[in-house]
Amino acid sequence: DVKGLKGNSYSGWVEAGYATEAGLPAEAEMLNAAEPDPAVAAAISEMFANVPEGYGVVAPDALNTALVENPDLILIDVRTAAEVEEKGTIDFANQIHIPLEEFVASRDMWPAMDAPIVVYCGSGHRSTMAMTILWTYGYTDVGSLKGGFGGWAEAGYPTVGGAAVVDLDGAFNTFLADMEGYNTISLDALNTMIVENPPFILDVRSTAEVEENGYIEGAVVIPLPELTANLDKLPAFDQTIVSYCGSGWRCTIALTVLEGMGWEDVLGLKDGSFTGWVEAGYPVATGLPEAEVLDAVTVDPALVETMTAAIAAIPEGWGGVTADAFNLALGENPDLQVIDVRTTAELEENGVIEAANWTHIPLEEFVNMQAEWPTDKDAQVIVYCGSGHRSTIAMTILDAYGYTDVYSLKGGFGGWVEAGYPAVDFAE
């Protein structure tokens, strides 16, 4: 049971302010508590006698030079297959992939004992293990890449393969920073906009709902599950889009996804969305409009794939959970993660829902506070705000980051209290 101290080992210990002792410790006590196999001990002793200067550390710049100057150099990648698939590899043809877990069992894949070898992993820890193993087997020209593949990539050296990198942080932070009124628009404001400066109107209900209940004149109908497959029917990134659905829930998911893909001014119709529009007496068209192909934008395919997966990950009922169901979950699931995305002022004024695993992450800082998100992406998570709009934005963001079981409280904190459930005072 031997462990290595990470976090820059002793240097990190000192920098963290932990206690140290001056001088040299007392002479080590003879314990004679273990009896290693003499042959193994001899092999290890011989290995230590032949450790190269610098303990085999190879800096990224040194490796980059060696790749050009030494055509006989062999790279061994000891990361998992999943890491290689996701991150890619160093751009060099003469390399072998042997996951550390299978390293000794795969000895038939090892190069000749006199071959020049550099081993790499994700950060440098596993590759140093593999390097040491090779030394004990008599290899004499083996190094380990300092900082691993991560350090190589961060230094700007070439890589190949791997999944495309999606900058979700940048996309969603831009959206959250630019929000006005949490990107909602009232019925009256939309009616005025249609007359004075018509926006692109997006109906994300199902075609059956549209055919049965009608639609707002001029709207383009793209059901939410089909949204990312029909981006060619949407306008330029800088054009205003007003999204609506039956009640205001699905259009909030749609506006979050579209903002995450680069559209700059996507609004969700509040006040009951289409249902509110009808009840307010605004005009409704009948039939099913045909969407025109615009080809106005090009979205990164990797980002489209991420948002498609986010929509697909939303639980049945579009992630909405009632106050009754939330209260039941609090009693039945001790591991339930609860996130309150209201402002601190709202918490101080109105109180909070009492939960064992409760976290406060204001929506405005949601992406910046990822360290506060649940560590288990498969954990059941319920997000709430004041009314349900902000929590649905946060729910959709979590789904985009790969969370699989996230819900948003219908009616928010206000609905919880109206249903007669208790609130407690907020304490920092």
- CA gyration radius, whole angstroms: 29 Å
The 3D shape can be described as elongated
- Beta-strand share of residues: 5-15%
The pLDDT mean sits at 96
- Uncertain residue ranges: none
- Report the end-to-end length measured between terminal Cα atoms: 40 Å
Q: Describe the largest sheet.
A: 5 strands, parallel
Structural class given helices, strands, pairing? Answer: alpha/beta
Fraction in helix: 25-40%
Strand order of the largest sheet: 1-6-5-2-4
Beta-strand segment tally: 17
Q: How many helix segments?
A: 16
SSE map:
Layout: H1 9-15, H2 38-49, E1 57-58, H3 60-69, E2 74-77, H4 81-87, E3 89-90, E4 95-97, E5 117-120, H5 125-136, E6 142-145, H6 148-154, E7 159-160, H7 168-178, E8 184-185, H8 187-196, E9 200-203, H9 207-213, E10 220-221, E11 241-244, H10 250-260, E12 266-269, H11 273-279, H12 301-313, E13 320-321, H13 323-332, E14 337-340, H14 344-350, E15 358-360, E16 381-384, H15 389-400, E17 406-409, H16 412-418
